[in-house]
Amino acid sequence: MIRFERLGKRFPGVAALRDVSFTIARGECHALLGENGAGKSTLGKILAGIYRPDGGQMVIDGQVARFASPRDAARAGVAIVHQELVFCPNLTVAENLCLHDLPRRRWRLDRAAMRQRARAMLREIGLELDVDRRIDALSVAQEQMVQIAAAVGWGARILIFDEPTSSLGARETEKLFELIGRLRERGVTIVYVSHRLEEIFRLCQRVTVLRDGRHVATCAIGDVDRDRIVHMMVGREVDVAVEPPPLSPDAPVRLEVRGLSSPGRFQDVDLQVRAGEIVGLAGLVGAGRSEIARALFGLDPQARGEVRVDGRLAVLRSPGRAQAAGIGLVPEDRKRQGLVLSMNVRENLTLPVLERFRAWLGRIGPGAERAAAEQIGERLSIRAPDVETDSSALSGGNQQKILFGKALLGESEILLIDEPTRGVDVGGKQEIHELIVQMARRGRAIVLISSELPELLSLSHRIVVLREGRTVAECRRDQADPERLLRHMAGIAST
Question: How many CA atoms lie within 13 A of 339 on its CB side?
C-alpha cells in the first residue's frame, strides 16, 4: 500500500530523515518505532502532507504521491491523529469535526446537519459527548478521542496514529484498540507510532525501527521480542526497572492536604507526602487526578481546603504563591501548559527563575543564563543543536525534558508530576524515571500522576486511588498490583 523510497528531510541544523526506504502492506497495522528525534513523527507528517520531503519519494497504492498540503493527502485518503492536539480551542466539538467541509443550506451554515454529522462521527468510535461544548472545555483525553473521531470519520484508507494513547486512560485505550481492529477488518492501513511496546505486540503485524533519522530494520512482530526492539531503537541495552529510594520512617511530612475540594472536580481529598516519598495518584480519565495537581499549584480559584507545606499553612491562590511556597508542577499538556513554543530552549528553561540571572540595572546576565540552560540540557540529554534552538522544532520527548529542566532550575521541594513520560521513548523514559528517583533521594516530596499503571507501580512508595473525584483506596507498594488498582479505579468489588 505504501512504499517509501530514499526519503529525506532536513530542518535547520538537523537531518530528521536520511535515505529512508521500507514498505507497508495493505490492511496491516504497522508499528513505527524509535527514540525521540529518530524521525517517526516527521515521516508521519510527510505521509499526511504536513511536510514535504527534501529527497526521495512516496508511492501509495502504485501511484507516486506528492502532497503539497494536508488537503492533498486527505483527498488521497490519508489522515493523521497527532500526538499533540491541533483543534481550534474556541470552536465547538461539532465545528471542529466539520471544519474541513461545513454543511450549508443555501448561503448559511446548516448547524443541525453539522451537529448530526458530528454525533455520527463520535458514535463511530463509541464516544458520548455534547457536540456543542467548546474544545477548550474538554479534558486532554476527551480532546484526543475527538481527534481520533475526526480522522476516522473522514473515511481515510490510510490512518496514522502518532502516540494515540498518550493521553488516554485504560478504558479509552481499550476502546481505541477495538476500533483499530474494526478498521483493519475494513481494509484500512494503519501506521502506528508509540513508545508503549505492549501496544505494539498486541496490535501490529510488522514493525519498522528508525534511529537518528535512518532506517534500521523492518521485521514481522513474531520475529522480535521486546529486548531486541529496544536494542534496535537505542543501540544499547536498556534496563527500565527503576525502584523508589528507601524511605526513612521518621521522614518529615512536607505536604499535607486536608479536605481539598473543588465543585464538580473533586471532593474531600486528604493527602500526605513525606520528604523523599513518591506518592502515586491512580484513576480513570475524569477521576480528578490532574485537577488536584492544578489546584495545589494555585490554578483553581474555586478550590477550598487546608494545605500545609513543611507544617506551615499555605494559601495557594496563584502559581506564583505556590512556587514561593516551594511547590512545582510538571503539567500534563506540555504545549498548552508547560512551554512557550515561540521561545527557544534556553528561554523556556530559565523563564520561571529569571530573577536569579538579573545583573546590573536589572538586565538579564546572558552568560549565566546560558550556562545554566546548557548545564540542565546536558544533564537531561535534551537533543537540540543548541540551547538557542526553537522549542517548537524539538520532538515531543525532548520538549518533555524541558519541563523537567524547569523544575530542576526552580529547585521546588514539592513536585507535582503529571504524566511524566507522555510521548517519551524507552531510553528517555528510563532517564526520566531515574531523575524522579534522584529527586526523591534528595528529599523532595513527589506526587506522581500517570495513566500507565506499570509506571506508578514501579516508582511509587504508596498509591492513592481516585474515582469520580474522591479517594477510594490507598495501597502501599508491597500491596499494589494492576488488578487490585483497576478494580478500585473502576469500582468493581473483589471476587
Answer: 27
Q: How far, rounded to the nearest angstrom, does the alpha carbon of residue 409 sit from its chain's CA centroid? A: 22
Query: Beta partners for 108?
Result: 105
Per the CB < 8 A criterion, the answer to whether 354 and 343 are in contact is no
Q: Mean pLDDT, 10 residues at a time, over the chain (495 residues)? A: 93 82 95 82 91 93 91 89 76 88 86 91 84 85 81 84 78 83 89 86 93 91 87 66 85 94 92 95 84 93 93 88 89 84 90 79 77 87 86 80 84 89 73 88 93 86 91 89 79 61
CB-count exposure of residue 479 (10 Å: 0-12, 13-18, 19+): exposed
**Dihedral of the alpha carbons of 93, 98, 103, 104, in degrees to the nearest 10:** 70
Radius of gyration of the chain (CA): 23
Mind giving me the DSSP string for 250-316? TPPEEEEEEEEEETTTEEEEEEEEETT-EEEEE--TTSSHHHHHHHHTT--TT-EEEEEETTEE---
The model carries a pTM of: 0.64
As a whole number of angstroms, the distance between CA 272 and CA 461 comes to 12
- Hey, what's the cell of 105? 443550506
Distances (CA, A) of 171 to 135, 176, 387, 426, 458: 21, 9, 39, 23, 21
State residue 241's pLDDT score. 65
